[in-house]
Automatic annotation (TrEMBL):
CDD domains: HTH_XRE
Disordered as annotated region, ranges: 127-190, 252-276
Protein name: Membrane protein
Transmembrane helix found in the keyword field: yes
Gene source species: Planomonospora sphaerica
SUPFAM superfamilies the UniProt entry points to: lambda repressor-like DNA-binding domains
Ranges of compositional bias, category Pro residues: 143-163
Regions that span the bilayer: 104-125
Low complexity bias (residue ranges): 164-182
Length: 276
């Protein structure tokens, strides 16, 4: 009897259907039908066919090894074991490089050469050096200056032999605002009206009064402006910046009444009559 017939007869003797045997062996029913007909082409190869035969024989109570041995004789015998070396043999031999110890002789020779070169350079470079004097240098002595003297009081004359301090403000003169008779010498007849005309070269403050002391003007005359006042019997004017204005009295040009920055007082009127 063939292997398939033995398995079919044993299944029938056990009272099992193909479906029941399929459920126990976990093998498809179509595959069991094919094995019972000795058709092992659906098993996927001899290896799987041997496994199915062994599994079915054990479930049906048959000698599994005897059936597998019979299967091997019918289908070419048991396959020979495969050596792992033949499977994993490398195509090219792997060469492993041996580690070499460092060449200490060459390293020492290079270090010695560097030391020799450094020594030669130091020797040649130090030949031209000149010794330097490291003795401490004494600091130069500074001349002794006399103690500063107290500045003179404002307005006091300088002491004999002491030069005046440059830039020191000069003592104010008591006659800085005194009347300059030369600027009041314009020919004006007694009782004649005085006409004063002032032109400001730059802004300047001034005060104008008539002979009776009545104020005609007090304020700042801006640069480029011209002002004119009239009064009988005379006129008195105070200029804060005498050099900033130009005067004209009764048509006579008198120019600036003083220097720039000078505060002066000028009177313009009838001069005193000479006694006969």
């Amino acid at each position: 009897m063939s292997i398939g017939e033995v398995l079919a007869q044993a299944r029938q003797s056990a009272g099992l259907t193909v479906d029941q045997l399929s459920a126990r062996a976990c093998i498809r029913a179509t595959l069991i039908h094919a094995i019972e007909r000795d058709d092992f082409s659906l098993c996927g190869g001899d290896f799987y066919a041997r496994g199915h035969v062994r599994n079915l024989a054990r479930i049906l109570g048959l000698d599994a090894e005897a059936l597998v041995h019979e299967f091997d004789e019918l289908h070419g015998g048991v396959p020979l074991p495969v050596r792992a070396a033949s499977v994993f043999q490398a195509d090219r031999p792997i060469k492993i490089r041996e580690r070499r110890s460092p060449n200490w002789t060459l390293a020492m020779a290079v270090a010695l050469a560097v030391v020799v070169v450094f020594g030669v350079v130091r020797t040649m470079g130090g030949a031209g050096d000149t010794p330097t004097d490291t003795r401490p240098v004494a600091a130069p002595s500074l001349p002794t200056l006399p103690p500063p003297s107290a500045p003179p009081a404002p307005g006091a004359p300088p002491a004999p032999g002491v030069p005046a301090v440059p830039g020191a403000p000069a003592a104010p003169s008591a006659s800085s605002a005194a009347v300059d008779p030369a600027h009041g010498a314009a020919s004006v007849r007694r009782g004649e009206e005085v006409v004063l005309k002032v032109r400001a070269e730059r802004s300047s403050r001034l005060s104008v009064k008539d002979a009776k002391g009545r104020r005609l003007f007090s304020g700042t005359l801006k640069a480029g402006k011209t002002a004119q006042w009239k009064a009988k019997g005379g006129m008195k004017v105070v200029f804060d910046d005498a050099g900033a204005v130009l005067l004209q009295v009764n048509g006579e040009k008198l120019g600036a009444p003083g220097r720039s920055g000078q505060s002066v007082e000028r009177s313009y009127g009838v001069p005193e009559a000479n006694p006969r």
